[in-house]
UniProtKB/TrEMBL annotation:
HAMAP family the record matches: Ribosomal_bL35
Annotated NCBIfam families: rpmI_bact
Domain of life: Bacteria
SUPFAM superfamilies: L35p-like
Protein name: Large ribosomal subunit protein bL35
Presence of the UniProt keyword Ribosomal protein in the record: yes
One Pfam family linked to the record: Ribosomal_L35p
One GO process term, biological-process aspect: translation
Keyword Ribosomal protein included in the entry's annotation: yes
Sequence similarity: Belongs to the bacterial ribosomal protein bL35 family.
Gene Ontology annotations for the cellular component aspect, listed alphabetically: cytosolic large ribosomal subunit
Species, as recorded: Consotaella salsifontis
Gene field: rpmI
């Protein structure tokens, strides 16, 4: 059976922790920062851990990166 392909878009957007959880950047930080509240900007720094249902979908896109 041939190898499964990894989705290129998922490769660029998601990372895995050592325990297998999926990390992603919070949404809403590309442009238009002037109208965002300081609380929103502060809470959107860094990476976040995806919920289990979302992580399951991402893991199906990246079969060899667990």
């Amino acid at each position: 059976m041939p190898k499964m392909k990894t989705k290129g878009s998922a490769k660029k957007r998601f990372r895995f922790t050592a325990t297998g959880k999926v990390k992603a950047s919070p949404a809403g930080k590309r442009h238009g920062m002037i109208k965002r509240s300081n609380d929103f900007l502060r809470n959107s720094r860094g990476m976040m851990i995806l919920s289990e249902p979302d992580a399951k979908i991402v893991k199906s896109y990246m079969p060899y990166n667990r």
